[in-house]
Design brief:
Blueprint lengths: L9 H9 L7 H11 L4 E4 L6 H19 L9 E4 L3 H14 L7 E4 L6 H9 L3 E4 L1 H9 L10 E4 L2 H6 L3 H9 L6 E6 L4 H10 L4 E4 L4 H5 L1 E7 L5 H9 L7 E5 L2 H13 L4 E4 L5 H12 L5 E5 L13 E4 L6 H8 L9 E7 L4 H10 L16 H5 L23 H17 L1 H19 L3
Parallel strand pairs: 1-6, 1-7, 2-4, 2-5, 3-4, 5-6, 8-13, 9-11, 9-12, 10-11, 12-13
Helix pairs in contact: 2-3, 3-4
Length: about 450
């Protein structure tokens, strides 16, 4: 099937032709006709399958046709796209601009982490389509810059990630401000029970559109695994990146701290790299991403959440400096390479603490990740055997224990003195802790 057979209007079809789009992806083939019929959609598709165009193209067509039939007047926001990260919001906005360049529709993107004036200036001029992260959207609604009374189409993109980032209460507030009579499009890379429950509360008789990645997509990626001690990961990464055949590399870490650490030691080794994560300013993140897309930067270091907006053509390598603690994230990570029929390479570093993560990953992929034996920094098996740390899953949100518990009389006395001190401090400490917890939750909600 070609785009020409999807009954698209001439302005949208012309834009797709100019971009060289001829054959829609599976998610586009399934979703576009259903959305054009005005039905709610529950879509499940991984990053890189073309789901942005799957909803952007029909939204542009619906709004263009409705706008032509309506009386001329001040622009009102008719479609809202909610997304978890700044990078993804910017990318979606670029897609709407590209596909809608021959229509008279205008889109505005709003997100936190930057001064709001440029965004509010654009809002004053009017917008048909609003792409937003939840925190900044609520801020601008409270300041009376935005109202959602005319929303006809609502899109929740990367819904699973929005729940992971703690946006569920914000999403419920926003949905409460939107007319009940609307079309709702719900897209998620995974469908855990929490996502199914949320979808059931906001969708009306939805058509389920699901695209399972073809094995050929995974087979197009050359995967390999290095077993390496944590302290040798740095040297192994520098060694690999000295190979100039690695034209571009996206390096994944689990935490912001490690992303900064990797960026620093690579630059010290004269391998220019930039990092993006939630603690970086929006300008710094966008500059780093643009440099990487333009091939000005060879290496980009990212956390999983920040990487949700990265879509780079001809990315040659993905390197998992740290193994993901959720097996599905491995598929998302390596799926950044090997796109559009091209081959790609995915390299993973696994230390002794990450072997449980590796086992989970090997359960969900067709063939276990091959181990690369050509390792200049092999693991010292004797040292690993003497490692006192317990073998087992180490969750970042749980206390980690190293070694055995001490049960000496001295340690018992220390513990008793500690509890006596806590009792003497009493309620003041408790109130202080509660205040800190409340403040942290409030800040986290707006960290987008």
């Amino acid at each position: 099937m070609s785009f020409a057979k999807l009954n698209l209007i001439q302005p949208v079809q012309k834009a797709l032709d100019e971009e060289g789009y001829t054959i829609p992806t599976p998610i586009q083939q399934k979703a576009i006709p259903v959305i054009l019929e005005g039905k709610d959609v529950l879509g499940c598709a991984q990053t890189g399958t073309g789901k942005t165009a799957a909803y952007a193209v029909p939204i542009l067509q619906i709004l263009h046709e409705n706008k032509a039939a309506a009386e001329k007047g001040k622009r009102a926001i008719n479609s809202l796209i909610l997304t978890p990260t700044r990078e993804l919001a910017v990318q979606i906005g670029e897609s709407f601009t590209t596909y809608g360049k021959h229509t008279s529709l205008r889109n505005v993107v709003v997100y936190g982490g930057v001064p709001q004036q440029r965004q509010t200036d654009k809002l004053r001029k009017g917008a048909d389509i609003l792409i937003a992260t939840p925190g900044r959207l609520l801020d601008l609604i409270n300041q009376k810059y935005i109202n959602l009374h005319n929303i006809k189409i609502l899109v929740l993109d990367e819904a699973d990630r929005m729940l992971d980032m703690g946006f569920i209460n914000d999403i419920k507030k926003i949905i409460g401000m939107i007319p009940a009579q609307r079309q709702t499009l719900f897209f998620s890379a995974t469908m855990p029970s929490s996502i199914v429950k949320l979808a059931g509360s906001i969708l009306t008789n939805p058509v389920r559109v699901e695209v399972v990645p073809e094995k050929s997509n995974v087979d197009a990626i050359q995967q390999s695994m290095y077993f390496v001690s944590k302290q040798n990961k740095k040297d192994l990464l520098i060694h690999l990146l000295q190979d100039k055949s690695i034209s571009s590399a996206l390096i994944f870490t689990r935490t912001k701290h490690v992303a900064d650490k990797v960026e620093k030691f690579l630059n010290t080794a004269k391998i220019y790299a930039e990092a993006i994560h939630g603690n970086k300013s929006q300008n710094a993140r966008q500059r780093a991403l643009n440099n990487f897309k333009a091939k000005k930067t060879r290496v980009l270091v990212a956390t999983d959440i920040a990487a949700r907006g990265i879509d780079v053509d001809q990315l040659s390598h993905v390197i998992n400096y740290e193994m993901p603690d959720q097996s599905e994230n491995y598929i998302h990570r390596i799926g950044r390479t090997g796109r559009a029929g091209l081959t790609g390479v995915a390299i993973s570093f696994c230390d002794s603490e990450e072997k449980m993560y590796l086992r989970d990953i090997n359960r969900i992929i067709p063939i276990p990740i091959p181990v690369n034996r050509d390792n200049p920094f092999p693991v010292d098996e004797k040292a690993e055997a003497n490692n006192p740390r317990p073998a087992g899953r180490l969750h970042s949100n749980k206390v980690r224990f190293s070694g055995e518990r001490h049960t000496t009389d001295e340690s018992k006395n220390n513990k008793k003195r500690w509890f006596d001190k806590k009792r003497s401090s009493g309620s003041n400490d408790k109130k202080s802790d509660q205040g800190k917890s409340k403040s942290y939750g409030r800040n986290k909600t707006r960290a987008n």
